[in-house]
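job 3f2a | input accepted
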Amino acid sequence: MNQVRQPIDVAVLGATGAVGQRFIQLLEGHPWFRVAEVIASDRSAGRRYGQAARWVLPGNPPQSVVEREVLPLDADVQSRIVFSALPGDIAKTVEWRLAEAGHVICSNASAYRMQPDVPILLPEANAEHAALVAEQRKKYGWGGGGLVTNSNCTTAPVVMALAPLRRFGIEAVQMVSMQAISGGGYPGVSALDITDNVIPFINGEEPKVEAEPRKMLGALDGDHIAMLDCVMSATCTRVPVLDGHLVAVSVRFAEDVSEDDLLAAWAGFAGRDPVPGLPSAPARPVEYRTEPDRPQPRRDRDAGNGMATVVGRLRPCPVIGGWKFLAMAHNTVRGAAGCSILNAELLLENGYV
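job 3f2a | predicted structure (353 res):
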């Protein structure tokens, strides 16, 4: 694994936005991919990337893209792999058109996540769902095209923490999220709303966090995913943290499970081959912290280069009748651009590109 490859050209849709910038940052120096095309809305098209993008990440945009011309959304894209950071309403049209034209779309957008023949990939948890790309090609006549998504940024740490625990029979999950302000994009939440405050509502978020894990943890069944048979309930809040979504999770199992069982499941989890050897995959997808006050976003969001989920505070849950814990991941890395890049690595390694 991690064989020497000639880097292949990729495109980034929505390249000037906050998640698009994270794609650009993470793809700089990638061993398999090279950013060849940057694409954005009409207000940015025709300008150089360095002029069009108001850079909101630490440092500066990579020199390799600063002088690139930003292409419009209807451009004749040349790159085989296309990463999408488009808003959902725009992605609905653009992503499908590009898949029809033979491109492999790795999307961070919500537009197609719950379509039955589109996988929501978190490779350590469900790499086998990538086989739906072959089903798409047969069904729609896409030739070499395909469309995969990654999850909502809050769903990612929940699914990563639950994936090693499927063997115990997940029956019910209750979640309360504490989501960073970067999850709302840029410029995001007003300072007058989030400063000295917690906002106990994020529009449209709770239905996603309740539905997506059941699909992601479900079983591949021909041309669709059979949803995991469990009940999920979510309350989603926005907190004054820059990066890193923290989720309080309670879970009930079909069988009696000990603390040692859960800790061993997390410690031994790495996902199926070829995932552990992919360039963006963390050595330990789930890291358990024994300290009573961890995980914390500021201290733990960069674990595994931002690709790990950090879990802690495991204890019995007397209300739901199982166990409860905290799970945290970097929302714009593992919960967004980083996961899409890992998805592309998986597709390339498995011969879908």
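job 3f2a | Residues 18 and 187 are 9 Å apart (CA to CA).
job 3f2a | closed
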